[in-house]
Design brief:
7 strands
């Protein structure tokens, strides 16, 4: 759940999902790319037209993201760089396990269920395959979302 900035690494995510789907014929990739990223939208449309189960929800207000999180088992977070990784925290607080880039920001927020090299499409595909195992460990949350508490405190 993120915008379409290059550092969010959607191209590798989409490629890895499609390779995985070609082999396993399982899964649906939900993404939230807004109209601000026409090149990425074109790639997504091309993949959908080829029959890949990708659902682009477009921009979703933060207070509505829980519906997407609650309807999915995993959050796949392939970003190459993050200042924090709030999407990971939100997903965890809505019952998702995390498949995350093996980068410091991921490990600062949680102990993910599965990690991958975000620059390696084949390693991302391996993570998708591993996610289908019966023995995937739960993600351990290390940081908790207190944004609403902070906003309420600032209103006082």
């Amino acid at each position: 759940m993120s915008n379409g900035g290059t550092h969010k690494n959607h191209n590798n995510l989409i490629d890895a999902f499609c390779v995985y789907y070609d082999k396993k014929k399982k899964g649906i990739l939900h993404i939230t790319i807004s109209d601000e990223y026409p090149e990425l939208l074109s790639i997504i449309k091309n993949k959908i037209d080829k029959g890949y189960p990708i659902v682009n929800h477009g921009f979703i207000p933060r207070n509505e993201l829980f519906e997407i999180y609650n309807s999915n088992h995993y959050l796949i977070f392939p970003s190459l760089t993050e200042s924090f990784g709030l999407g990971i925290v939100e997903a965890l607080e809505n019952g998702c396990k995390v498949i995350g880039a093996d980068l410091p920001y991921t490990h600062a927020v949680c102990k993910p269920s599965i990690t991958f090299d975000p620059l390696d499409v084949s390693d991302m595909e391996r993570a998708f395959i591993e996610s289908q195992s019966e023995h995937v460990k739960d993600t351990e949350q290390l940081v908790f979302n207190r944004i609403d508490d902070l906003i309420n405190l600032l209103k006082k």
